[in-house]
Every structure is written in structure tokens, then in C-alpha cells.
Amino acid sequence: MKAMSAIDSRQSPDEILASGEYPLSRKDLADIAAMIYADAGIYLNDSKASLVYSRLSKHIRNLGLSGFREYCALVSSQEGAGARREMLSHLTTNFTRFFRENHHFEHLRDEVLPGLLNRARSGGRVRIWSAACSDGQEPYSIALTVLAMMPNAADYDFRILATDIDPKILAQARAGVYDENALETVSPAMRKQWFREVDAGGRRKFQVDDRVKKLITFNELNLMAQWPFKGNFDVIFCRNVVIYFDEPTQMKIWSRFASLLPDAGHLYIGHSERVSGDSKNLFDNIGITTYRYIGKSAGRRA
Ligand SMILES: C[S@@+](CC[C@H](N)C(=O)[O-])C[C@H]1O[C@@H](n2cnc3c(N)ncnc32)[C@H](O)[C@@H]1O
């Protein structure tokens, strides 16, 4: 595996790649990139210098440190474990939206859920995984799609697992409280039925109803680490996260997903992502960023 933002012999480690309050040298960036790659699989190269600078400089000031060098020393030390976790929260991108890439939710509703809901009604188990759920808008959109078809889905063995590496964003997801503008992509009927207005320190916000939350379990999970699952998932949403990983890491993730899907299980990925390389043989591409696992019995295609 190539080192992230590795410094080659023609480059000066002291060259300043971004500056303002504190200079960010190539060596600082290489150290930060190596840590975030080891911790989360996120690939950063020199083109991300201003992003790293803008995400971390305020944090460095709050910690009362003299600059990026001292910060790198802290986050790579044992005492700096907490600061290193914070670094991860600062460097991950949490952008999400209710019903983002709505064609996935339409496909789920029209092609996938009818069969899964029938199975649940006849006593079967159904599991859906939202595998980088950010502040919860993705798993809540899945739950709202399910509830529109079966309002009492929580009475059956039908559950959505929603995971993310970032505990801070997961706390927001569990709370399920959003600004009104976040709800722009939620239909008026769904808003009325499944959200209630709350006063959040004088600001008008909207909270997801407990009947929706009941369908979802939120857990911390690093896609790079071991996954603690016993059973299969019928559907996996893993959208707009592997784009931050390098190609070999993406390929590993696709085949790990395949190992968790039943024959003809579905995988939805982000708009700029593609199942690529050898993993392409594991899936049929059946729509825009929509894949169906070909199944263990079908074997690998040539
Ligand atoms: C851009 S958001 C995508 C949210 C949602 N899936 C969507 O498409 O709207 C990416 C999320 O991936 C999470 N993430 C980054 N690296 C991860 C990793 N190694 N394991 C699990 N989650 C990760 C981030 O914390 C962030 O919340």
C-alpha cells in the first residue's frame, strides 16, 4: 500500500503547503494523512492541504498549541488519543440530505420493499444497513420509505442498522433533530406524520418521531475495522463515503459487502462512486449506482 501523501526525494518536507495563523508544511500534512488513513481509510494528498488547514487550525488554537508540528506530536502520542479522535471528526465530511439521490429510495420502494415487507409480514427477518449514516438523514429516509408502505413495520422483525465512524455525528443522528430547511426534501405528508416541532434553545426545529426511531439502531462502526455481524443484510446503503478511500480499499469494501448480502441482495452507492475492479464480477449493475449481488451460487463471472 502506498503511503498517504508520501514525500518523495525531490520534495522538501519543510515546504509550506497552506498557511494563515499557522503554517502547514508538507511533513505536517504527510503525518496527518498517514494517521487518518490508518484510522479511517481516508486518503489525503497534497491537494487537500487547504482543507486540512481550514478544518484543523481553529482546533489547534483551541488546544493552545503553537502550530501543526506540536499538534502532530500530540495526536500521535498516547495522551493525545482523545485529540486524535477529534481530528477524525474534523476531517470527515458529513454532508447529507433527506432523500439524497432519491432514485435509490424510489427503487427501494418499487422494486425491493414489496418482497421484503411480505417476508416480514409472514414472520421473516429483514435487515437494512446504512453504512456511513452521518447525522441520520439517510437511515431516517429509509425508515420513512418503509413506514409509508407499512406504518406498523416496527411490530415485525424489520430493522435498520445505521453506523458511522464519528461518535459526534451519531449523537446527532440519535437525537434526530433538524433545522426546517433540512426537511425541504421531505414531503409535507411525511413531515406532518413523522416529525414534531421542538424548541431548541429558542430555535424552531423538527424532531423525528419515536415510531420512526424504533426501526433504527445507531452504532459506531469503522468500515476499515472488523464488522461484528452475525446475519446477512438484505440491502446495504453505502453512499458518499468510499469516495474518500483509495481504490484498493474500495475494492476490499465491495467484496466485504458481497459477503454480507444474500443472493440478489441490493447495494446502493454514492453518485460519484462505482463498484470497480474484480468486485464488478460480484454484482449486476441494475440502475444508477444501484447493484444486485449475483449470489454465491452463481460464482464469479470471468
Ligand atoms: C458524506 S457523509 C455521507 C452520508 C450519507 N451516506 C449520504 O450519502 O448522505 C460520509 C460519512 O462517512 C463517515 N465515514 C468516514 N470514514 C468512515 C469509516 N472509515 N467508517 C465509517 N464511516 C466513515 C463520515 O463520518 C461521514 O459521516
Please state roughly what percent of the residues sit in beta strands, choosing from under 5%, 5-15%, 15-25%, 25-35%, 35-45% or over 45%.
15-25%
Number of helices: 10
Which stretches of 5+ consecutive residues score pLDDT under 50?
Answer: none
Roughly how much helix do the residues carry, as a percent range?
Answer: 25-40%
Q: How large is the radius of gyration?
A: 21 Å
Q: Between the first and last Cα atoms, what is the distance in angstroms?
A: 26 Å
CATH class of the largest domain: Alpha Beta
CATH superfamily grouping of the largest domain: Vaccinia Virus protein VP39
Overall structural class, as computed from helix and strand content, comes to alpha/beta
Q: What best-fitting shape do the alpha-carbon axes yield?
A: globular
CATH topology of the largest domain: Rossmann fold
What summary fits the major beta sheet?
A: 7 strands, mixed
Strands side by side in the biggest sheet: 8-4-3-9-10-12-11
Q: What's the oligomerization state?
A: single chain
Task: Please write the string of helix (H) and strand (E) elements.
Answer: EEHHHHHEHEHEHEEHEEHEEE
The overall pLDDT, averaged over residues, is 94
CATH architecture of the largest domain: 3-Layer(aba) Sandwich
Please give the number of β-strands: 12
Task: Provide the list of bound ligands, each named once.
Answer: S-adenosylmethionine
Describe this structure in words.
The chain has 302 residues and is α/β, with parallel strands linked by helices. It folds into two domains: 16-91, Chemotaxis Receptor Methyltransferase Cher, domain 1; 102-301, Vaccinia Virus protein VP39 (Rossmann fold), CATH 3.40.50. The protein is built from ten helices and twelve strands. The chain has a seven-stranded mixed sheet with strand order 8-4-3-9-10-12-11, with helices on one face. A three-stranded antiparallel sheet has the order 5-7-6. Strand 3, helix 6 and strand 4 (158-164) form a beta-alpha-beta unit. The radius of gyration is 21 Å and the shape is globular. It starts with 15 loop residues before the first strand and ends in a 9-residue tail after the last strand. The model has no long low-confidence stretch (mean pLDDT 94). The structure holds S-adenosylmethionine.
